[in-house]
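Trying the structure run again after the queue cleared.
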Amino acid sequence: MPRLILGLEGALGSFSVALVASDGRMEPRVACADPSEALERGLRLVAQVLEGISIAELGAVAVGTGPGRFTGLRVALAFAKSFAFGAGLSLTGVNSYDILEPENGPTPSAAFVSGRAGFVCVRLRTADATLVRCGTRAAVVETIAAALAPGSMLAITGATEGAAAGLGERGIIVRSPCTAPVPPALAVALRAARITPAASPHALRADYGEAVRAIERKVPPPS
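Done. Tokens:
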């Protein structure tokens, strides 16, 4: 059934809100704010994209679940959960890697997401495996290089600053997909139309990259 999907995203830099129709019957609406203004302007952006739209016309809410910027991610998730619960709508989560990478894109590919200063998460996809690693940029570059054969061609997206040079030094040929950037909230709403919603708004959880770091901390230091 055709429906309108409200998308929110705050983990990848700016705080953004988008409204799309799953059947393409209307032009997408998008509004953005500086990440430092997410808390103050977030609800106004939601009202802006919903102008002239009743709650009854909405079919679902979608939100970016991270990893990424801690504060923006928490604000977007809190707004989305509250809105979905109050309106009685389903809530779908979309991870940052899927927001950054084009659907059905080439492999191998790597999507980079910035977190706190000096910290980055990456998802590496190959033809037969998926690897997620969080840590320093140097560490994740080493992980990618170790997983690929020298001379491999790798498509990279997201916060790739410094990654291309580091991978090139290790014999990996990097390239960026030739696609126009899409506002994160719009990517969230478009992806959500093909993802199963959470069991309830309260069941959706954020990914801060902490689980990977916790695993790394449990590895004993070399003797």
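The first helix runs from residue 38 to 49. Worth checking whether this holds up in the mutant runs.
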